[in-house]
Amino acid sequence: MERTVFYLLVVFLLMPEPSSLQETEPHGTSQDPWSELKQLRELVQQQAAALSEIKEKLVNMENKNTAQAGELLAVKSELQTAEKQSSYWMKVAFSAGLPSGYKGPFSTEITLIYTKVVTNVGGAYNPHTGVFTAPIKGVYYIRFTGAAYNTDNHNMGINMYKNSQLLLHLGESNRDGHLRHVSSGLVLELEAGDAVYLSPLKPTSPSLR
């Protein structure tokens, strides 16, 4: 009997007391699932707001880049225009004269065609029509000289036109039958495509040279 009691006592001592079992339970309390869901929803809303802000910034950046691209294209176009103008600068010049012999007198006002071309840099003067066409907008200096031999007591006259507008009339009275010269020039502000040409005064102009 004493041996059996001894084992019972040992088993009893190894078993924890009820109070100690309660102390070993976790002290943390489980969170309400609805509260967790609310927190998740608030987090999603915050992230959605942040994403919307990022999208707005991206749109603003795209608009800014588009505007800058447009400005860049405009600057590039202006640069190309300036380069084109500078390429013509100092490259528009011509010198031409009438062929040998006398021309006229003329019964109608015609365009004088200077077929004897010495220089025609830029190709703005047309030796087939006698017309100088401005290739670009700019300021041009155009000068001409004429000589006339009068045997019929006619006066000499030359008109300069821009398109159909009379710019200058230059004349010389000749009553002695000697060779007469006239010379003049104008500084003209021309638009691209403006045409300049000379015409003898009809019908009093003598033979021009």
Structure description:
By secondary structure, this protein is of the alpha+beta class. The protein folds into two domains: 32-89; 93-208, Sandwich (Jelly Rolls). The protein is 36% helix and 30% strand. Strands 3-4-9-6-7 form a five-stranded antiparallel beta sheet, with no helix packed on it. Strands 8-5-10 form a three-stranded antiparallel beta sheet, with no helix packed on it. Strand 6 and strand 7 form a beta hairpin. The longest helix has 56 residues, at 33-88. The radius of gyration is 51 Å and the shape is rod-shaped. Residues 1-16 and 20-25 have low confidence and may be disordered. Keywords: Coiled coil, Secreted, Signal. Residues 87-209 form the C1q domain. It comes from Pangasianodon hypophthalmus (Striped catfish). Residues 1-21 form the signal peptide.
Put the structure in a nutshell.
The chain has 209 residues and is α+β, with helices and mostly antiparallel strands. It contains 3 helices and 10 strands; from the N terminus they run H-H-H-E-E-E-E-E-E-E-E-E-E. A hairpin with a 2-residue loop joins strand 6 (156-162) and strand 7.
